[in-house]
Design the sequence.
RNA sequence: GGGCAGGUCGCCUAGUUGGCCGAGGGCAGCUGACUGUAAAUCAGCCACGGAGAAACGUCGGUGGUUCGAAUCCAUCCCUGCCCA
């Protein structure tokens, strides 16, 4: 049920790859961007809107859905797809990122992580096995191993500890995963190792050795520079099996995506398009703009003159700026829709460019317009 | 005409046993940040003059009391309510 095919005739070990991922809920053309729907909702979007844009897969989050409504409730509702009425594929993150983002509310132990709920203060323990069990109940097509995402910056010794623990946890996750239906759900391992070459290489080797259906690169987008995250890719990707999808977690900006695809990444997720949309920023072919800015008050044209999304076809930037100033929900909705459309459109362009063997030219053209704002 | 309550930096408001107040808070406004979502959030700026830091003047006006006034006194102006 779960397969990954790469277009043949190209050296796909390094360099941009064009492929497709078969899941129980549809085929995903790669490279792909997956919107983040932490609490079984991509913030400000309806499932119809996500379908209209064309996303084949979205994310959910184990930690958040465990806290509310709980995996049992979702299981009783027939699983995440049925619960949220999403016919496409779903990938659930394991809660490993919450080890990083909720660092003030948790305690790491060898056996797992003790979290204090930000909702009501109650205590909860997550182990590699329990995280897989929760994800089994949620029923996502792709589930993630429980990992420890180290902060940035972080001393090598501490990163190594987190990485070693991530490897041990990955083996436990695999073991627990194999007790379920491995055809219905694909488990991805996660490479860690911070920004140390030696650790990243070791982690890539260790995770690759588990021979899981997919491999993610975690521990990036934690505050480091773009150069540092690209280094991680260059150390890691050449050591990963060619025939497994590579998922760069939490990345990124449009430029990040292009740079990562160029180095051989197949899958991405990031909150930027949705969060920025809610906070007043939108992506355009000529760079990112802050819609709340006075300069758009009288703008009669669309947010992005080169965009064909519903929001840009119908509403002016000046109108949407007005909606932001009035705190109208519609502002967040239109901007989020636009940003997601922008990302989806970007990925389509990337895929076509790879198919036609013109990725380098595509990149140059995109960057020129995006950065120079011609 | 009489009585009462008030006039604070765009708006609302704190401050009235005088010094810690050129003055706090909220809103509005401007700018920026956001990368496996505790985020429709957060941060900075925000009276005027001045290029601007400092200094300086300005809390309805004017004049007093005082070492010192948004705070006390006098007077004028204005606003709201009540009585004629």
Sequence:
């Amino acid at each position: 049920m779960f397969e990954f095919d790469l277009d043949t005739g190209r050296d796909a070990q390094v360099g941009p790859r064009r492929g497709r991922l078969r899941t129980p809920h549809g085929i995903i053309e790669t490279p792909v961007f997956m919107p983040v729907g932490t609490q079984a909702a991509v913030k400000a979007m309806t499932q119809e809107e996500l379908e209209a844009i064309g996303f084949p897969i979205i994310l959910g989050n184990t930690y958040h859905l465990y806290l509310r409504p709980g995996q049992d409730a979702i299981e009783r509702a027939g699983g995440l797809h049925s619960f949220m009425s999403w016919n496409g594929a779903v990938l659930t993150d394991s809660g490993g990122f919450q080890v990083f983002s909720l660092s003030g509310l948790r305690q790491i132990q060898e056996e797992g992580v003790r979290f204090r709920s930000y909702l009501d203060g109650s205590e909860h323990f997550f182990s590699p096995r329990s995280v897989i069990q929760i994800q089994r109940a949620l029923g996502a097509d792709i589930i993630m191993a429980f990992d420890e995402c180290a902060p940035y910056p972080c001393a090598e010794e501490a990163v190594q500890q987190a990485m070693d623990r991530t490897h041990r946890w990955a083996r436990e996750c695999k073991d627990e995963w194999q007790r379920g239906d491995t055809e219905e759900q694909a488990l991805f391992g996660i490479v860690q190792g911070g920004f140390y070459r030696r650790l990243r290489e070791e982690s890539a080797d260790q995770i690759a050795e588990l021979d899981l259906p997919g491999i993610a690169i975690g521990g990036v987008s934690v505050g480091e520079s773009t150069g540092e995250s690209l280094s991680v890719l260059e150390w890691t990707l050449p050591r990963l099996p060619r025939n497994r999808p590579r998922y760069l977690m939490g990345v990124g900006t449009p430029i990040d995506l292009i740079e990562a695809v160029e180095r051989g990444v197949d899958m991405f997720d990031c909150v930027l398009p949705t969060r920025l949309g809610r906070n007043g920023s939108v992506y355009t072919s000529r760079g990112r703009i802050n819609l709340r800015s006075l300069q758009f008050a009288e703008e009669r044209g669309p947010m992005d003159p080169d965009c064909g999304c519903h929001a840009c076809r119908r509403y002016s930037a000046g109108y949407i700026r007005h909606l932001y100033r009035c705190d109208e929900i519609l502002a967040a909705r239109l901007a989020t829709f636009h940003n997601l459309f922008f990302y989806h459109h970007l990925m389509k362009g990337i895929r076509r460019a790879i198919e036609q063997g013109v990725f380098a030219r595509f990149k140059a053209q995109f960057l020129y317009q995006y950065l120079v704002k011609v």
